[in-house]
Design a protein that fits this description.
By secondary structure, the protein is mainly alpha-helical. The protein has a domain of 45 residues. 58% of the residues lie in helices and 0% in strands. It contains three helices and no strands.
Length: 65
């Protein structure tokens, strides 16, 4: 698809990576894709937070008395 179909649409470059980068950048400008990215970031943040070990109790913390 990249090599054969995109040059007529103005997406071209010396390497396939250049064309792929242009496609990704164009896709990231779409609202529905931005919503998916936001959802993915939220899921990743929750997963990272749940993977952290619990903090040890601070003996000098007055709220823990």
């Amino acid at each position: 698809m990249i090599e054969n179909g995109l040059i007529p649409f103005g997406l071209y470059g010396k390497k396939r990576a250049t064309v792929a980068a242009a496609l990704i950048n164009d896709a990231l400008k779409r609202q529905d894709i931005q919503a998916n990215v936001k959802e993915g970031r939220e899921k990743a943040a929750k997963a990272a937070a749940s993977a952290l070990p619990p903090k040890p109790a601070d003996p000098q913390d007055p709220s823990r008395t």
